[in-house]
Amino acid sequence: MASNNQAGALGSCPICGAAVQTQHEIIQYSTTAGELGRWAECPGCGEAVDPSSDTPNGS
Ligand SMILES: [Zn+2]
User: Fold this and answer.
1) Which residues surround ligand 1, an ion (CB under 5 A)?
2) What is the distance in A from the centroid of ligand 1 to the CA of 39?
3) Of 3, 7, 27, 51, which has the highest C-beta tally within 10 A?
């Protein structure tokens, strides 16, 4: 696990595909599976999106 406290990309907007950065993050939450989820306001379309769901790196 790398420490990603500095500004960086959270992922891509699932709606418009814009790059969502950590500075756009609105809230963090823990899922029932114990994973960290994030909601961020997309700089492209302005919607509250979950950019972390875009990473096709799940187990
Ligand atoms: Zn968007």
Assistant:
1) 13, 15-16, 18, 42, 44-45
2) 12
3) 51
> Based on the number of CB atoms within 10 Å of its own CB, is 13 exposed (0-12), middle (13-18) or buried (19 or more)?
buried
By residue count, the chain amounts to: 59
| CA 43 to ligand 1 centroid distance, Å | 6
Q: What's the DSSP call for residue 54?
A: G
**Residue from 41, 48, 2 nearest 21 by CA:** 41
Segment 2-49, tens digit of pLDDT: 544 456 889 999 999 999 999 999 999 998 999 888 999 999 999 999
